[in-house]
Specification:
mainly beta; glutathione-dependent formaldehyde- activating enzyme (gfa); 11 strands; binds zinc ion
């Protein structure tokens, strides 16, 4: 088994939860950096939007602790810190080789600015960015399904 130091020497960047119980490292460059406006992310994070990086699943290593998991739909698993609640990852059964990591759990989120907005059809009326990035009604065209599938969630109003 590799030590945390061995893993870190190969990592592009690292991050973790608010309380410090969980730490992870990422190798390789993310393939997507976007801001999701879907209502499921909104409720899961308690935040108007959530910024995500898509990475190869094999490039994510947990260096300290393991996150708790919640199946937010039959196809989707979200992980979070069981101690402090920080949302950490999102995986979808239709793209099992990828994992989305919350950009703002990185130690250096400034290094990975988003390139577009997704699911603005779910937006709250008072969310305004004005950052000039392309805003997609749902998932970005031509990309596999990312977030926001129209489903009925027990915790969300219909
Ligand atoms: Zn924590
Ligand atoms: Zn989302």
């Amino acid at each position: 088994m590799q030590s945390s130091e061995d893993i870190m020497s190969h990592c592009l960047t690292a991050g973790g939860c608010l309380c410090g119980a969980l730490r992870y490292g990422l190798r390789g460059a993310p393939t997507v950096s976007m801001i999701c406006h879907c209502r499921t992310c909104r409720r899961a994070a308690g935040s108007p939007t959530v910024a995500w990086l898509t990475c190869s699943a094999e490039n994510l290593s947990w260096m300290r602790g393991k996150p708790a998991a919640f199946a937010s739909s039959p196809a989707v698993v979200r992980t979070f810190c069981a101690s402090c609640g920080t949302p950490l990852t999102y995986t979808h059964a239709e793209r099992p080789s990828e994992v989305d990591v919350t950009t703002c759990t990185l130690d250096n989120p400034e290094a990975f600015p988003p390139t577009y907005h997704a699911w603005v059809s779910h937006d709250l009326a008072w969310v305004r960015f004005g950052d000039g990035l392309t805003a997609y009604h749902a998932a970005k065209e031509g990309e596999p399904c990312r977030h926001g599938l129209p489903r009925n969630y027990p915790g969300l109003p219909a």
